[in-house]
Each structure stands twice: as C-alpha cells, then as structure tokens.
C-alpha cells in the first residue's frame, strides 16, 4: 500500500525518510538524548552562536569535536571544517555517519593539543566543552599548539561551563571538570594569546552579555593573534 500524507506538502518528508532512513546520532549525543534530551537544545544553541560568529570563514578548526553533533550547524555558514579529538573511536564513528549522510566539506584527525600541533593553517577555530577537561599544567601547551595552527587575523571561540555553576553540576560532570573558568580567568587566558577578547554569558539556549556570575556557561571570542 502506498503511503500518502494527508497534507501533500508533507509527502517529501516521508519519501526522504523511506529513501534515506533515520538520522543516527553519535555515541556522545545518543547518551545525552537518552538521559537529558533538553541538553541537546543547549548544545545546538552553542554551535549556532559559533556559526554566526564565524560566518564566511574559509578553513575552520573544531577542537574536541567529539561525535561532531554540531558540525553540520557550523558548516551552514563556513566553507570547511577540520575536526580533531583525541578519541579515535569517536572520530571513526563520525566519519561513518557523515559519509552515510553525504555531509562533505569536513575532515577529521586524531590530535591531542596538549601534546602536538594539528597540521594546516586555519582562519578560525572553535572549541566547546574542552578547556575544562585540560589539566592546568597542560593549559599553556594546549593554547600554544592551538594558536600555532591559526592565521594572524583569526577568530577563536572557546566555550566552557562557568565555575560559578559547579555546585549544580552532576557528579559525573563534576568529576571531569578539572579546570573550570570564571569570566575573569577565561578572559585572562584568552587575552594572553589574542589581541582582543570578548566574553559572553549563556543560560540554557540564550547567549547574552549579562551578569557573569549568574551565567551557567561562558563563551570567549578571541580576535587576532598576538
């Protein structure tokens, strides 16, 4: 029996679903969907912010891309993205899913910025939910290796939970957050490497310039290498 929607304008969605099958989430985001699905809206909002701030950039680096959940959002506004992570299994999974979905203009490689520099030269970079996992004694190496692959006039975005919100973190989350920042310490870090640094507050899906201690999440934008 042929499946037809009642409203004809919806038919292409059924046809595409039958032809392409459902979209598959990666391991990280599948876990979030099963345990706290509303958190996916927060992640999407962070990636949307990156896509707006980096619109028009040519070669973009995503540091700590994980299963690349948000990469397609940023790909809507930039020419290409190279994603790095130090987990080989998660990158192999991302490659398989992106190939199945015919998502192009992106590439992946295993890289730990606390120990090595990624090859290539990028005019922009973004890194969400990574810096808080970097040991404090490796932070300078991480930032120096990141900047070594950026052009002089680059834009770099770093997002991280606010240390002020740590008391609300789950035990699993708190265990991995070994290097949390406040707005002051995040700006101090970024200002050591970039000519201009701008700090944004974020609560749930909303990015703003409000009172930093009341922000759950912080986003720093560094412009131009020192």
The unreliable regions are none
Number of separate helices: 8
Q: Give the strand order of the largest sheet, numbering strands 1, 2, ... along the chain.
A: 3-2-1-4-5-8-6-7
End-to-end span in angstroms?
65 Å
Structure notes:
- The chain has 226 residues and is of the alpha/beta class.
- 34% of the residues lie in helices and 25% in strands.
- It contains 8 helices and 8 strands, in the order H-H-H-E-H-E-H-E-E-H-E-H-H-E-E-E.
- The protein has an 8-stranded mixed beta sheet, with helices on both faces.
- Strand 2, helix 5 and strand 3 form a beta-alpha-beta unit.
- The longest helix is centred in the N-terminal third of the chain and has 15 residues.
- The radius of gyration is 19 Å and the shape is globular.
- It starts with 10 loop residues before the first helix and ends with a strand.
- The model has no long low-confidence stretch (mean pLDDT 95).
Topology diagram in text:
Blueprint: H1 11-20, H2 27-35, H3 39-53, E1 59-63, H4 71-75, E2 80-85, H5 88-100, E3 106-110, E4 122-128, H6 139-147, E5 150-161, H7 171-176, H8 183-191, E6 194-203, E7 206-208, E8 217-225
């Amino acid at each position: 029996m042929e499946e037809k929607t009642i409203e004809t304008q919806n038919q292409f969605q059924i046809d595409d679903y039958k032809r392409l099958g459902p979209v598959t989430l990666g391991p990280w985001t599948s876990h979030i969907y099963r345990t706290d699905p509303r958190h996916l809206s927060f992640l999407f909002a962070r990636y949307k912010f990156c896509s707006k701030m980096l619109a028009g950039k040519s070669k973009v680096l995503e540091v700590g891309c994980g299963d690349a959940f948000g990469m397609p959002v940023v790909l809507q506004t930039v020419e290409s993205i190279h994603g790095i992570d130090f987990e080989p299994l998660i990158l192999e999974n991302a490659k398989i899913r992106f190939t199945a979905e015919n998502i192009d203009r992106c590439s992946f490689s295993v890289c730990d910025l606390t120990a090595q520099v990624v090859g290539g030269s990028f005019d922009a970079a973004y890194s969400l939910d990574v810096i808080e996992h970097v040991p404090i004694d490796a932070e300078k190496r991480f930032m120096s290796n990141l900047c070594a692959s950026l052009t002089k006039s680059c834009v770099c975005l770093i997002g991280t939970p606010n240390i002020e919100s740590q008391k609300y973190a789950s035990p699993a989350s708190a265990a991995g957050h070994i290097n949390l920042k406040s707005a002051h310490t995040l700006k101090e870090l970024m200002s050591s490497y970039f000519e201009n640094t701008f700090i944004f507050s974020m609560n749930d899906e909303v990015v703003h310039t409000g009172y930093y201690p009341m922000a759950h999440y912080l986003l720093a934008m560094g412009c131009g290498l020192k």
